[in-house]
Backbone:
């Protein structure tokens, strides 16, 4: 038993285990784990972190993310204090340029749904490549929305490459009900986070997936936050029929978290496959001689734009504050 839990038990405090469904200005909305599958009608507790610092959590920009499991004790009918964050099963992390730190957007997801578009904004495979790195091993579904608009032959080839590399892909037009129904099927039983660049159609898809779930039931999460048919500016967990969605704010840019080049390379399956043949152990495939990855890039067996995308990520690490480079 954790010592704070022990103290709480002695003093007769009501201890709960819950999931963070939203966090704004250090106030976290939490739903009891026993109610998380009935999110639409669950009680939402507004909680702060006890003493403002969580034990066992290192200095992070934001110690709690949507999806985190926490222990909290009640201080009122719908208020509480958080005393502990449970170990994360996984997390989607990005580099927060403004704060100069890594930031966890969501934790403990079954799936990341990365939404891209054919056009308006243009298809940006490098955004998808970075999302794969940020997801760091969380299964990822790559959705290509606005399928009613064409891709160029080159873009189409780049998109099809994801399936060849082993990623799940899904082509959709958000206005097409059949596509939405098929997507709902894929999401059944899962807790998923939707991420995407602004304008790709994430809100349209979220609204179509949630349908009337959104505005139903008094006291529901949706009503509490008056989330109507508009975009969010913070991540929030919402109930669908048979699945749970974390809607995240649309982003203009997505930067990979600060980590080693080697770690980033692990998210490129086509590099990983041959990395054992590189002359150097933990080769970054950038400047080392006798690099098996670069050899494949040269003879076009690795897509040149995937490699260029990787190079950009590695370059982006060096633009960051010095202390973080040294801290690697
Ligand atoms: P968000 O910024 O990602 O939330 O994007 P929105 O959902 O607000 O959509 C941006 C624009 O794209 C809106 O004008 C939508 O009507 C439009 N849009 C969304 N899905 C599709 C689609 O499948 N095809 C086309 N042509 N437009 C779409
Ligand atoms: Zn190499």
Residues:
């Amino acid at each position: 038993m954790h010592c704070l839990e022990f103290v709480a038990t002695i003093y007769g405090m009501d201890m709960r285990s819950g999931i963070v469904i939203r966090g704004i200005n250090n106030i976290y909305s939490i739903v009891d784990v026993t109610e998380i599958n009935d999110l639409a009608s669950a009680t939402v507790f507004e909680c702060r972190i006890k003493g403002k610092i969580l034990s066992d959590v290192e200095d992070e920009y934001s110690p709690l993310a949507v999806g985190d499991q926490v222990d909290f004790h009640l201080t009122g009918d719908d208020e509480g204090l958080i005393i502990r964050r449970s170990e994360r099963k996984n997390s989607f992390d990005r580099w927060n340029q403004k704060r100069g730190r890594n930031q966890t957007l969501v934790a403990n997801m079954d799936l990341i749904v990365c939404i891209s578009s054919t056009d308006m904004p243009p298809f940006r495979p490098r955004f998808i490549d970075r999302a794969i790195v940020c997801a760091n091993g969380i299964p990822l579904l790559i959705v290509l929305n606005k399928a009613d608009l064409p891709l160029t032959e080159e873009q189409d080839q780049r998109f099809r490459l994801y399936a060849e590399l082993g990623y799940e892909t899904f082509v959709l037009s958000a206005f097409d009900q059949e596509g939405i129904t098929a997507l709902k099927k894929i999401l059944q039983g899962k807790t998923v986070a939707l991420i995407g660049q602004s304008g790709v159609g994430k809100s349209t898809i979220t609204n179509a997936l949630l349908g009337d779930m959104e505005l139903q039931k008094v006291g529901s999460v949706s009503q509490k936050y008056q989330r109507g048919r508009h975009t969010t500016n913070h991540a929030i967990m919402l109930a669908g029929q048979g699945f749970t969605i974390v809607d995240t704010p649309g982003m203009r840019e997505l930067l990979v978290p600060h980590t080693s080049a080697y770690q980033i390379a692990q998210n490129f399956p086509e590099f990983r496959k041959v990395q054992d043949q590189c002359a150097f152990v933990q080769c970054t495939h950038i400047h080392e001689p006798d690099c098996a990855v670069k050899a494949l890039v040269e003879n076009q067996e690795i897509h040149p734009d995937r490699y260029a995308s990787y190079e950009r990520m590695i370059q982006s690490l060096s633009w960051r504050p010095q202390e973080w480079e040294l801290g690697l």
Remarks:
- The first helix runs from residue 3 to 10.
